[in-house]
Structures are given as structure tokens and as C-alpha cells.
């Protein structure tokens, strides 16, 4: 009996020792949850205060539109049914104005009413048929006036699509990120433009740029590899289009090329100025991962030609490591003379490649492709500029947030100021000035 009592005492002491830490953990958990509640309450108060500030401006606009309605009969609001939190149909209204900033001021009413958040997922027009299996988590948050999709859509870099962009926001959101989201929206408003319909091509200085989404562009390349005899594809950015004013051969090549992709925020701004906004920014650096995925799926072979010795080899190693099953049939640096050109062509042909990526710089690569395409046994040849430098790790690319707000050019200037300042600091404004002059000239003769 005494032994049983001693065993019970031991068990009681052991049990009590285990309970003490649990009590401490419970207290700590309550403190943390209380702290988080206070923080979330504080953030909500700040959200309401910011919304009230915007609502003050909204009331002024509302009053002005009320006077307009009295004299013209035009409605004050334009109503829209959207997906609310948990995908519940929710009606909101915008001010009936063309100016996007003034139009969106009405949305701040709904933050105070609790239908919208200041920051959140993208605002989606309600259509139950567009729901897909497994998308419920994307609707777990309220739509936000400031949202990641708006920023990426404005800079034409939302290649992942709206659903994946919203999920990315939900998984990575935080108070600091929400604050930065609001700041990033300001430059995004400069680039943002929408139309009911988009042209399939955009005319810029007589050069026809394809206006497609990234996935459509990859599908086009796949189709060309499978079914065309032989095609060339080029990318153009503001620097490329500045060069055509001095290099008439390059200008002629671009005018005669059917497949040209728009590259860069400068082209995005120019397209908006021409009232023909881009669907997406189809730059080669963002395109390559999608191209590699498609090449793996279709067993296409890719050859890397260009850049300094060793760069293409390093890019190949990095790409093969990232994309399992990718076939890079060969590499060749771009430092070869005219006398070595035939050997390079033979090397490419022996590799039995489907897609040739040529990184010799603009306009050398375009001229090389046009001059040698008939000798090459490839389905598609693409001029890709400094692409291999980025994927070899030789040059670090701008962080995603800078690309989202159209500041990748600034990052490049900071990386290589001596080489890049003239291209961007002088070249970008010069390009936009040329676009304005070209637009005015076309308007004067009735072609726009």
C-alpha cells in the first residue's frame, strides 16, 4: 500500500511539472493573441482614417456630379456587381467619370461600410461561371482598392494571372507589404490603361508590334516551331526604336518582320499615348522561363548563340538545373569573326536545334539573323540582346517590385552608370518625344 502511495505521489509530481509549462504557454499565447488583436484593431483604425480622408475628396466630387446631373441628367454613379469576401455577390459603384483617380474615389465609401478593404485581393466583376475548382482560398479576403493585381496589370507584368497573383498576396501579406502596396500604386496609375478591345498589332513608326499576352506569345512560338518553314522573332524597346532613326538597314528589317514583341515600360507608355495599350510586356527576360517550360513539354531543342565567352555555357547550366528535361543542344559565344561564321552555322545545324536564341546585341543580332537565316536549319531564330547575361548570373536583374512599378531601367543605370545613363536618361525621353511628334504627324494626315 505504501509503495502504491509513493508511486501516486511520483506521478502527481510528474504531472504537475508538465502542467506548469502549459500554464505559461497558455498565458504567453493569450498575450500574443491579445497583442495581435490590438495591432489589427490599430491597423483597422488607420485604414478607416485614411479612407475618411479620401471620402472627404469623394464628397466634393459627389457634390459636383450632383450639380452636373441637375443640368445634364447624367447619372452620378456607375454600378458594378463584384465578388466580395467569400465570393459573395457584392454591389459597388464608381463615380461616372473617365478619369480613373476621380472615378475610384467612390470606392472609399465601401471601406467604411466594410464591403472593401484598403488593401486586399483584386476587384473582380461578378461572374459565377468564371469560378474554378480550388479557388475558394483566393476569395477568403475582401477585395482591396489597392491590390497587387492592379500594379502588375498596369506595368503589364501580371504573367501569372489574376488568381495566382491574389494567392501570392494572401500568402505573403503583412503590414509593411500593405503599406508598400499603397506606395507602388501611385506610379502604377501612370501606366494603367484599359480598353474594351485591344488591337492585335500596334503601329509605332511604321513598325508593327504584336499585342499579345505572354501565354499567347508562347503558343505562337510553339506553333511556328511545329508548323512553319522558318521564322524570325525580334524584341524592341525604346533604345531599339531610337536606333532606327540612324540605322536605315535596321529600320527596314523591323518593318519587314512579321513577329516583333514589345519590350519595356517605355513601349507601354508609348502605346498608351497612342491610345492602343499593351496587353502585356513581352520582354525576353520574363519570357525565357515560359519558353523553357514549353520546350520541355514539346521536346524542343534550344541553342544559345552570343555574349562573352563562358556566359552562354553558364546560362545553359543554370537553365538545365532549373528546368528538368530541357534540351539545350549547344552554345557558342558571340566573339567570332566573318571568317569563322560558316563554322558557327555548321555547329548550329549539326545540333539539330529548333529554337536559336541570338544574343549579339541590337542591331547586330537582327542583321546576322536576316543575313544567315537561309543557311540555318532551325525553325525559329530570336534576337534576345543581353538575355544570357541575366541567366548566367553575370548581371543581376532588378527586384520584382522595381519591375512592377516600371523602374527596372533605373536599376540598370545604377548597375552600369557609364554605359547605361545615355540610353535611359536621354534615350527614354527622346523616344517618347519622337512618339508624340509621330502621333501628331499621323493625326494631321488622318491616319490615327
What are the low-pLDDT stretches, counting only 5+ consecutive residues below 50? Answer: none
Principal-axis shape: globular
Return the average pLDDT rounded to an integer.
Answer: 91
In the sheet with the most strands, the strands line up as: 8-7-12-11-9-10
Strand content: 5-15%
Secondary structure category: alpha/beta
Helix-residue proportion = 55-70%
Kindly summarize this structure in a few lines:
This protein has two domains: 50-191, no CATH class; 201-442, no CATH class. The protein is of the alpha/beta class and 448 residues long.
Topology:
Blueprint: H1 2-72, E1 77-83, E2 89-95, H2 100-104, H3 107-113, E3 117-120, E4 144-147, H4 148-154, H5 162-172, H6 175-191, E5 201-204, E6 207-210, H7 214-227, E7 231-236, H8 238-243, H9 248-255, E8 259-262, H10 265-273, H11 284-298, E9 301-306, H12 311-322, E10 327-332, H13 341-350, E11 355-359, H14 364-372, E12 380-383, H15 387-392, H16 400-404, H17 408-415, H18 417-444
